[in-house]
Amino acid sequence: SAALAGASALDEAQFRASDGADVRLDRVAARGAVDAVLRESNLASDTRVEVQIDATRIEVRLERPVTLTFLRVLGARSQAIGAHATASPKTG
User: Fold this and answer.
1) What distance in Å separates the CA atoms of residue 86 and residue 2, rounded to the nearest whole number?
2) Are 45 and 61 in contact (CB under 8 A)?
3) Residue closest to 35 by CA, chosen among 47, 23, 21, 51
4) Nearest partner of 54 among 88, 20, 15, 84, judged by Cα
5) Among the listed residues 23, 33, 45, the one whose alpha carbon sits nearest the alpha carbon of residue 89
6) pTM (predicted TM-score)
7) How many Cβ atoms from other residues are within 10 Å of residue 52's Cβ?
8) What kind and span of H or E run contains 48?
9) pLDDT tens per residue, range 6-54
10) Sheet holding 48-53, edge to edge
11) Distance CA 25, CA 56 (A)
């Protein structure tokens, strides 16, 4: 998933400087990893993507409208659907 790819982007300089005690994300590299996965996913153009990254966690949310074919008879035309994933870097 995009969140897992982002969580693998560690701040290697900080990790090495702390002898492995401080495991943090490199925010720029994490966002780049998320973007690469999403590009390869061929998401619909109307998909809304929200990415939140801090030092220890990344969250990716996707949302897009879908046409409700069978519910049109009740007046419902579309509904937003979505997914989200959260990941954190781990060592050991």
Assistant:
1) 9
2) no
3) 51
4) 88
5) 23
6) 0.84
7) 10
8) strand 48-53
9) 999 999 999 999 998 999 999 999 999 999 999 999 999 999 999 999 9
10) 48-53, 58-67, 78-87
11) 6
Residue 41 backbone phi and psi in degrees, to 5: -80, -10
Query: What one-letter code names the amino acid at 54?
Result: D
Residue identified by tokens 């966002």 is 31
**Rounded alpha-carbon distances, angstroms, from residue 25 to 4, 22, 80:** 12, 10, 31
The string of pLDDT tens digits covering residues 15-28 is 999 998 999 999 99
Q: Which residue has the tokens 């720029």?
A: 28
Distance CA 19, CA 1 (A): 29
Query: What number of residues does the chain have?
Result: 92
d(CA 43, CA 64): 10
**Would you say 78 and 46 are in contact if contact means Cβ atoms under 8 Å apart?**
no
